[in-house]
Automatic annotation (TrEMBL):
This is HTH-type transcriptional regulator SkgA. InterPro entries: DNA-bd_dom_put_sf, MerR-type_HTH_dom, MerR_fam, TipA-like_antibiotic-bd, TipAS_dom. GO terms for molecular function: DNA binding; DNA-binding transcription factor activity. Residues 1-71 form the HTH merR-type domain. The gene is skgA. It comes from Actinocatenispora rupis. It comes from the Bacteria. SUPFAM superfamilies: Antibiotic binding domain of TipA-like multidrug resistance regulators, Putative DNA-binding domain. Keywords: DNA-binding, Repressor, Transcription, Transcription regulation.
């Protein structure tokens, strides 16, 4: 039994455009291509796609994924390693939950943040893998941009990574402060903060207006991203989204 590219896209949640890209780079060739040019996939290709998606979730680059899948490495051993990394990621996320929860509690006590005796607590649990600027939609819709971002991250030193983590956290808190103060998203101060966000994204990939709006939409549409924003302040994901749309129309169109 075979499946068309549309059926595979529907089952897997991967866009047809991404599946065609995977074929073009030799990562996931279809089982056959019909005379009309339509791609068709068999069970072996579906299993390979499952492996690709699993490794993508773990932050593995496309070149690395192809190297693993094309090698003769024992798949069970590979899955065990993936399982280990997933458990480590779960522990990291648990730490992030505690970090943000502690910050919220301290902000409620004193909105000037003067009660935070150990500023380093703000950054506990953040790692290179917690990049919020580079999102799932960019990975699926703009694979080349995603690969560009991966290359940028791999070129960062430990000091660069630590500084970037602090900047991301500070930027989210500043946006939350604008929102809580009731400032409209087109306010110059808010737009200046969005410019900081955009320039931060450009360290990894350079989105045009459409791509930047797509990134904004992911912040509110993807439950994982929305939850991360709203842990800082309820409604922050929507506020960030709306501010980014204004910025894209004014500065990127």
């Amino acid at each position: 039994m075979g499946w068309s590219i549309a059926e595979v896209a529907r089952m897997s949640g991967v866009t047809s455009r991404t599946l065609r890209h995977y074929d073009e780079i030799g990562l996931l060739p279809p089982a056959r291509i019909a005379s009309n040019g339509h791609r068709h996939y068999e069970r072996a290709e579906l299993l390979r796609l499952q492996q690709i998606l699993l490794m993508r979730e773990l932050g593995v680059g496309l070149r690395e994924i192809r190297a693993v899948l094309d090698s003769q490495v024992d798949r069970v051993s590979v899955l065990r390693e993936h399982h280990r990394r997933l458990l480590a990621e779960r522990d990291r996320l648990d730490t992030l939950v505690r970090t943000v929860g502690r910050t919220i509690a301290e902000l409620q006590e004193d909105d000037t943040m003067s009660t935070i005796n150990r500023p380093e607590n703000l950054f506990e649990g953040f790692t290179e893998q917690s990049r919020t600027e580079v999102d799932a939609e960019a990975r699926e819709r703009w694979p080349a941009a995603w690969e560009e971002s991966r290359a940028a991250v791999e070129g960062m030193t430990a000091e660069d990574s630590e500084q970037w983590q602090r900047e991301v956290t500070a930027q989210l808190i500043r946006m939350a402060e604008h929102m809580v103060a009731g400032e409209p998203v087109d306010d110059p101060a808010v737009q200046a903060e969005v410019d900081v966000h955009y320039r931060g994204v450009c360290r990894f990939w350079t989105p045009n207006a459409v791509a930047y709006k797509g990134l904004a939409r992911t912040y509110v549409d993807d439950p994982r991203f929305r939850e991360n924003f709203d842990r800082i302040a309820e409604g922050l994901a929507q506020y960030q989204h709306d501010a980014m749309l204004v910025y894209a129309d004014a500065r990127l169109s």
